[in-house]
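Researcher: If convenient, please comment on what follows.
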Amino acid sequence: MAIIFGSTVPAHAELTHPRQEYLRDAQGGLFLHWGMRTSPGYTSCSAWESAVTSGGWSPSYWVTEAQKLHTQYLVLATFHSRLGYARPWPSVIPGTCRTNRDFLGELITAANAKGLKVILYMTDDPKWHTEGLPSGQSWLNSQAYSNYKGHDVDLSTRDGFGEFSYDLFVEVMQKYPNLSGFWIDNDNAYWESHGLYEKIRKDRPSFTLSNNNEDTPIMDMISNEQKTGMTPSYDYPQAVYTAAPRLIEADYKLPTGGAWWYSGSNSEVDYKLTLGRYVTNAGSSIKSLMAETAMVNGKFPSNQVNFNNFANGYLQAIWESLEGTEGGGYLNGGLKPGFWNDGAHGVTTVRRNDPNVHYIHVITRPSGSTLTVRDNGYRVARVRNLRSGAQVSFTQGGGKLTLSGISAWDDYDTVFRVETVAREGIIPPSTYTMSASSSASGHGPSEAADGDYLSYWDSNKVTPVSLRFDLGSAKRVQYIGINQREDSVSYARSDTEQSARIRDYRVYVSSDGSNWGNPVKSGTLPSHRGVQFIDLTAVTARHVRLEVVSTWAASSDTTRYKRLRVDEAWIGSNYAGGGGLDMDVSLDANPNIDATMSN
């Protein structure tokens, strides 16, 4: 797989559709790279098939292992550019290895019987057609395919391979109506010019389409190989550049070394890294596509089997905090995720069918016995440790929930179940009148307070820029909450891929919308995902102005430099559960509040 950096924003993607339901309900899938070049490797298709069958290959084994990992779908990558382009089904189309035994059909039947889905990987790339073969040989048989088609086709070219693989898509759709979709490695111009995706939509409207590396609008989901370099290392969502509700998938290997396919080694599995990735992805509504290296007979090396057995019980004990939830702190509400107190880090989840039930996942524990998390306006009723069931002592105030007296932290994920009453202290955004000093066409300031995360305010790459709230009448103002659009990485991966988030800011308030005085708060927001807050010394005012002085992306990132997009912003009049600051200043009494009064 080639890693391609950069992104494009889908212009007309179907962000939600009934065919996507099984993916949206899933937390992850099992990625199976398994083909002719699986160690020890075969150059004869019939010899490979014989070895698979005589070795005891069974589709139920893969299904069982997928269930241990608490995944809900399998992606089979056999027609893969570096695995010999094998097709594990009895195809009538010549050109590459095709088996007599219907491995694909057997897997679909076995998986569907257990409520799991199967997605078929399809490559677009003939580049590796001679890899692993003696000089002059190829995994592709252009002459056989040309004879079948009645005209010359060179399968080693992208157009020729595109024509060949187009026929394979059609064949698979006809043979396997119970397949659930295609996982496509990048794209092919022949497919596009000949309307392949439109044909899939027409012939098999229930099939989903997932695309590796490229955010192609017609695809249901964008998948990316697990990036590295984040701190903490398990926090892949920092590398995501596609905003929900677009379906997003992270692909990562469980073995710590080697290729995506079995190369003869029994690599260790890093339990903390793997479980951290799984949970952190769930905390951002990102699907985890976990690759395990199946041997020729389909079985996994012992270290991967041992991890699967461990994960089965480990995840089951906290499954209610993952199944039927969405990532907290984004468009579904929820407590603030990310970097907490005393070195703690983790994510939050919120139940889809009960938005007052939240879960805090502490993956990296704090140095002490307390944990402090931003409450995002939710009034908390009770907290308990999900694994032990023990009640947890807590206090709430100043916009924060503090759990105390925690003596036992799990090695991988300490989970707290947080029951809340409701959100409180937030002035209804529907009562605001929004304005801005600059806006891009079609993305005006009202989009930042319309309650819809499909719309957003775009500053049109102008800084400094101001977003203004007219509250209609003088009201108490305690803080500003803001969800910036998650369409860029949150850390600088390179000179040309950086964070399009607020850096330096100033906050002003006014009684008449004309006289603003000095800023009541100045500061810097971190380049982090999820909801951010700007706390103020409480003041009574009708008008609030958030001035963004600068954003995080440098001028070397021409796509994101000065870019600012805000999904939703709101004003908090009071903190949930009390605990606000004692000082409450009226602008009518003092219209020139200076920065020394900021919190």
Remarks:
- The chain is about 15% helix and 25% strand.
- The mean pLDDT is 93.
- The CA atoms of residues 173 and 203 lie 8 Å apart.
- The first helix runs from residue 21 to 25.
